[in-house]
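Query protein
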Amino acid sequence: MYYYFVISAFIGGLIPLCIGLFICFRSGSKILNMVYGFLSISSGVWCLGQWGYFSAQEYNTALFSSRLSNLAAPFIPTFYLHFIFLLIGKKFNKTLLGSYLLTLFFALFSFSSLYIFDMRPQMMFKYFTHGGKLFDIFGIFFSLTILYAVYLLIITLRVSFGGKRIQYVYILGASVVGFIGGSTTFPLVYGIQIPPYGLILFGAYPVIIAYAIIKHHLMDIRLAVTKVTIFFIIYLSTFAVPFYIGYKTQSWVLSTLFMAILATLGPIMHRRLQAKAENVLLAKQKRYQKFLLNSARGMIQEHNLERLLNVTIHVIKRSVKPKFVAIFLKAENGSYLLKAWRGHGVSLKDLSLKASHPLVQMLEHKREAVLWDDSKPALIDLPLPARLIVPAHNDKELLGIMLMGEKEDGTPYTEDDCNVFDILSRQAALAIDNCLYMEAARKNQEKLFEAEKLAGIGGMAAGMSHQFKNRLNSFVAIYGDVYLASQYIKDKYPQLLEQDQQLRENIGYLDKSVDDATKEVKRCNALVQGIIDYAKEKTSLEWGHFSFKEALEAGLKLVRIKHQCVDKDLPFEFFAQIPSDDRFHGVKSYVHEILFNLLDNAFEAIEDKIKYHLAPGQAGVYKPMVRVVFSCQQSGIEFLVADNGAGIKDEDKPRIFSPFFTTKSSAISGSGMGMYILKRMVVEQMRGAIHFESCYLEGTTFRVALPASNI
């Protein structure tokens, strides 16, 4: 039984010491890893100190081993508490600072008789620790610190979820097993005859933590435990086998020879076994990482955004095999809309992330892939069980966000995965920028084509109008000849007209027909002239100074022509409030068209209200009205066009400036492009602003503001 305790102490100390040293030297600057490494080292030194005085044959050796063991002991609860703080995201506070100060206090007295008073025999042990007065205080400090850390872990465990909850369960289990096992050394210190049977459990503590590391990715040292195990087996064999041979054969020459051989072969075997372990454990990961890197290089060649997103998701699903992948892209309003996704059992309909979402705000500053545990606070209200978040930035902004679920085989994402996805995200950002540029270029080409087409139609309309005008002039000439012939008959044969009543009536009817035809020709001529004038203005896009009143009159003229009011009053009262100095800088043809569209809309809104929305008793009371107000300000000019027509419904207001949308009931009122083109003229071409207020069945007011100078 004695050898059971010696071996338990040796194994329980060697395993955490090796793991701790490996972590500290290979984990970089990550404080969580470092603190866990220090915790393992202090645990290993404490347990190896126990092994030292368990197996000691001399008093001084036993006393030194005990005091060395208890030098490390105060660091165990403090490093454990610090480890729990970091694990649950709790900040360094006065409690942790006080724990470190007490640890240093106990460490200073570890080699004094106040802490370890003496060594005395206990049961099968020749020497066992006999604590001093400070040892009792240390026992209280140790117990309270561990209990407080476990309490924090349990409280956090109750509100945690997903992979983090599983990690907490393993840490809690390892804590219970390890500290109960280690505490079985205390009874003999106080003379209670209970052997430290549980000390073997102390060696299970780092094994359970190691399992959590490998299975649930507690820290980014997934391969560390495997390497430590190889290191432990190789070098333990290098020393243990020669000693065993020497003990059995009583030949230390043979033992030394075997040690030399194993010491020579050990490093070679160590390197080969480590390389083999890496190839076996990371084979699948390296395959899909290589596949992703190759795919990233070809992203920039894709110019269609929708196809790019779908191909990206397909590649990731095929290679990495996450349970789902979702890609969000930034919209014009600043929010991030779901553009592509794929996964099993995940409903992502109408999912979006607002600009104020904590995840978006975090990723705007963090330009690298984020593991789920690091971003947990931001993901609480996200309805997706994301395990890896990959942002895509260009030089100016966050373009998109990719969320990835847990891998189908349950393996965790690693730092290598994050590095690969960082490269992928940079290539994706370039490809997205390229697609957006190509899309904008395509739309600009369409605009240019449309402008050319409209210009061609305008030129053709102007040419046809000239031809119509020529024909109308011919009709006027013909009617003039008929009129002259009629006058000739009247002057040449007055007696015949007096005698023949039928002839007189026919000549009178002919005069009346010529007069009516001439009037109609004049009306047609005015309409055609309006089209010619409008076409001339449309072809001139030069900036210049002109009178607002002239532009308003031109717009009214076109409204009269369109609605056949050339020779009669408009069906509404028209008020214009224009100062005497009404000249301003702008594109005259654009202002003509803007006024024409707004006045035309007012005309039809009033007609619509009269025809469809007035009650029988309101027809005589309703007074249709259109009002135009022009004002000059230091920042520029502003004009409004207001009517008391049918107004706009609330549900139609967001779409007023959308292409192919119209609220007009008339089939000849257009295709719904008028307000869309009008807004582009104001905002894009003249760098102004346009907005409106409307109340359904009461009226609408449009306001247009143009800057003072657009040169």
